[in-house]
Amino acid sequence: MKRILCLLFFLFAISPPSFQRGGFAQNADPVLANNSKATASAQDSAVEEFSNTEESEQNADPQVLIEELVGPLDTDSIDAETIAATSGWIHASGLTELLGPLTPLALSPFFGVTCLSAISLWGPEWASSSPMLGANGALRSETIFIIFLVLTIISSVPRFTKVSKPLAQAADRLEAYAVIIILLVIKMTTAMETPGDEPAAMLKMGVLSMSFDTFLAIAMIFNILIINSVKFFFEFLAWLTPIPFLDALFELCNKTLCLGLMAIYAFSPTLATIINLAFFVVALIMFRWIYRRTLFYRSMVLDPVLARLWPPYAKPQNAELVVFNRTELGNFAAKSRLRLMYCEEKSAGWILQESRWWLPQREHIIERNTGIKMHLGWIMHSVKFNSGDKEHCLTFSRRYNEETLRTLAEKLGIAMTTDAVEHNDAERALEFG
């Protein structure tokens, strides 16, 4: 996922100016985002445009909402014209139209696009006239509606049973990437249809500068991927729970929530954007904890399958072993993905290393006198050692067969035992918690 995010960031950074103008607003006047004060003429034109726009009668008026919360705006520090100009700029920049539907699209990507297309085709009169839902919206097509309805059925039906749900889970991230590409295509198509003789709105962050549309697109990608990752984790937990109809109930609740959020977006993109930001903040707080466990479960479940389907994957490239610590170990949180290697240069035993992009690598040294041993298991293998008065356990998947694993253990200088590892209830809770 990190490599894909970096590639998308690079593509937006080098994209031509025609792709960086206009955003989702087709008739928007570009604004320089790094100017500290707007001129009086710009404020007057923004007030006039904001008051004469027909779309403001259909959507929630941000100025009215602010006045209800903080009272009248004719004070010494804030005036009505400034708020009106700001509200007009937010509406013209397409901020709410872009961020509003991201949460339902992250929860159920194909079903979310189906809902957008249906609202655009047969939606009520009070529905928003955004570029995706208006009369000239990019999704206003019966062909697009039918295609995504079929894709929704194909991707949703396997989620109702525990036998077929792993197939749907395997394609879940591909579904999210497909919708991201669709939104980017819509954004670029809208940008190319707008006049390109005005300068693009730019943001300056230290030595880094980018167009405002590029910043919104990157924020959109992170928003969808983070919320989708959190949803994927809870779906996986529902699959692990031995309750027969829990998967179907979870899927029905997911689709109902997606439909409700799409209805809110059709009524008020501003309110939908606020809800999306709330979902994103909660998901961002949980993301690190969930991401480590998602990597753990994915490695334990998929590594043996990939090793059988692709034989080179079942052969180690280097004298190292990918492990996950069961509990906190040094600077590593529980369920961190680590590399176990033999430390020849320092002659101190073994080294655990965590690779992090753009950040210094963190290491933990395992001394020679710790009595490190490798144990084979039915579901996963483990490496145990004593550090002080506490026993630590590093688990790893059944990616390698026993013969390959013995050869790798000899290269690592780890003794392999033949005893069966038995876990009590407390240890099982640690393993899957």
Folded structure, characterized:
With 433 residues, the protein is α+β, with helices and mostly antiparallel strands. The radius of gyration is 27 Å and the shape is elongated. The longest helix is centred in the C-terminal third of the chain and has 41 residues, at 269-309. The protein has helices spanning 2-13, 40-52, 55-58, 62-70, 80-93, 95-99, 102-107, 109-122, 142-156, 165-170, 172-193, 212-240, 246-267, 269-309, 402-412, 425-432, and strands at residues 202-205, 208-211, 320-325, 337-343, 349-354, 362-366, 373-375, 381-387, 390-396, 415-416. The chain has an eight-stranded mixed β-sheet with strand order 6-5-4-3-9-8-7-10. A two-stranded antiparallel sheet has the order 1-2. The two termini are 24 Å apart. It has 16 helices and ten strands. The chain folds into two domains: 2-28 and 94-297, no CATH class; 315-432, Roll (PH-domain like), CATH 2.30.29.
Give the key terms.
single chain; 433 residues; alpha+beta; PH-domain like; 8-stranded mixed β-sheet; two-stranded antiparallel sheet; 16 helices; 10 strands; 53% helix; elongated
Describe the structure in brief.
The protein has 433 residues and is of the alpha+beta class.
Give the mean pLDDT.
Answer: 74
Radius of gyration: 27 Å
For the sheet with most strands, the description reads: 8 strands, mixed
- Estimated helix fraction: 40-55%
Q: Strand order across the biggest sheet?
A: 6-5-4-3-9-8-7-10
**Given the helix and strand composition, which structural class is it?**
alpha+beta
Distinct helical segment count: 16
Could you give the count of β-strands? 10
Gross geometry: elongated
Number of domains: 2
Amino-to-carboxy terminus distance = 24 Å
What string gives the helices and strands in order? HHHHHHHHHHHEEHHHEEEEEEEHEH
Proportion of β residues?
5-15%
Return residue spans where pLDDT drops below 50 for at least 5 consecutive residues: 7-43, 45-60, 73-77, 85-90
